From TrEMBL:
<dbReference type="GO" id="GO:0000166">
    <property type="term" value="F:nucleotide binding"/>
</dbReference>
<protein>
    <submittedName>
        <fullName>Putative dehydrogenase</fullName>
    </submittedName>
</protein>
<dbReference type="InterPro" id="IPR036291">
    <property type="entry name" value="NAD(P)-bd_dom_sf"/>
</dbReference>
<dbReference type="InterPro" id="IPR000683">
    <property type="entry name" value="Gfo/Idh/MocA-like_OxRdtase_N"/>
</dbReference>
<dbReference type="Pfam" id="PF22725">
    <property type="entry name" value="GFO_IDH_MocA_C3"/>
</dbReference>
<dbReference type="InterPro" id="IPR050463">
    <property type="entry name" value="Gfo/Idh/MocA_oxidrdct_glycsds"/>
</dbReference>
<dbReference type="InterPro" id="IPR055170">
    <property type="entry name" value="GFO_IDH_MocA-like_dom"/>
</dbReference>
<dbReference type="Pfam" id="PF01408">
    <property type="entry name" value="GFO_IDH_MocA"/>
</dbReference>
<keyword id="KW-0560">Oxidoreductase</keyword>
<dbReference type="GO" id="GO:0016491">
    <property type="term" value="F:oxidoreductase activity"/>
</dbReference>
<feature type="domain" description="Gfo/Idh/MocA-like oxidoreductase N-terminal">
    <location>
        <begin position="5"/>
        <end position="115"/>
    </location>
</feature>
<feature type="domain" description="GFO/IDH/MocA-like oxidoreductase">
    <location>
        <begin position="161"/>
        <end position="240"/>
    </location>
</feature>
């Protein structure tokens, strides 16, 4: 118990209640200490499930924990993450980091300046099937292109359909970071968004340039009546075609694996990671380029 990280959770929406809170409460290395949300009744209900306290405001929560998990819209996260980082608290952050590149740069910079551990909710990267796929790609090499498809009806109905920031910013900001992160990890750093098109139904088509003359495409939507959600990744090159098989690891299982890394980072003092805030900043620049490429 003495070695457990005291974690405060900011937010009480669907992702906070189904992934963050139970994951933190059940992990042997963490303890859910406090919860704060804009709606106090929602925070109280969530905190009560796990014996956590309800904070009166974010600063009270930050003062009594070792680490802060943030589960709020990106524009809101920017201020809260900065406050926590300036107070020396380690951070579990949502993707994207912020609403703008400037705010994302401030978050990543403050975390680095204070030598803090951070991880961004790129949960796919903590799934064994994704880890194995990326390892195989790195071993074989010779990939010249790739593609990502993420097609969902999440904004047409279900627990996320009332999320205003997702309606406002759509698939690019919600599932885009996952797609760009995996394409970048599989094919090498994304250097430029060559072209971007957005249709009325939140259907995005993007062409991406990577280092070494590699290109990839991404097709994203959260407003297509697609069941189940289509999540396909593939690369191709001199050794043929390699597709990432269907997802086998749940978000909850991936979150537990992520907490394993987070706890190890805090205790070891090694605060860099492939999915840390610097990665979040890199992905934010890709989002920004995509928006700027719209006609």
């Amino acid at each position: 118990m003495e070695d457990q990280l005291r974690v405060g959770l900011i937010g009480a929406g669907p992702w906070a209640t189904t992934v963050h809170a139970p994951g933190i409460a059940d992990h042997p290395g963490t303890r859910l200490t406090a919860v704060w949300a804009r709606r106090r009744d929602a925070a109280a209900e969530l905190a009560g499930r796990y014996g956590a306290e309800v904070a009166d405001d974010p600063d009270q929560l930050i003062d009594q924990v070792d680490a802060v998990a943030v589960a709020v819209p990106p524009a809101v996260q920017a201020d809260l993450a900065l406050r926590a980082a300036r107070a020396g608290k380690h951070l579990l952050l949502e993707k994207p980091l912020a609403g703008t590149v400037e705010d994302a740069r401030r978050i990543a910079g403050t975390i680095a300046d204070n030598d803090l551990a951070s991880l961004v909710m790129l949960t796919l990267r903590f799934s064994p099937e994704v880890i194995d796929w990326l390892a195989e790609l790195g071993k074989v090499g010779g990939w010249t292109g790739g593609s990502a498809q993420w097609l969902s009806g999440a904004l047409l109905g279900g627990q996320y359909s009332t999320s205003q920031w997702r309606h406002d910013q759509g698939a690019l900001f919600d599932v885009g970071p996952h797609a760009f992160d995996l394409l970048d990890a599989a094919l090498g750093p994304i250097t430029e968004v060559i072209a971007a098109h957005k249709a009325d139904n939140d259907l995005w088509h993007l062409i991406l340039s990577h280092e070494n003359d590699v290109t990839s495409t991404a097709t994203l939507s959260m407003r297509l009546p697609t069941r189940p959600t289509v999540v396909d990744f593939a690369v191709y090159g001199s050794h043929g075609h390699r597709a990432l098989g269907g997802r086998q690891t749940s978000a909850q299982q991936a979150y537990t694996a992520m907490l394993d890394d987070f706890v190890a980072m805090v205790h070891s003092g090694v605060h860099t990671h492939a999915c840390d805030a610097q990665r979040g900043l890199r992905l934010q620049t890709v989002l920004d380029q995509a928006i700027r490429k719209l006609p």
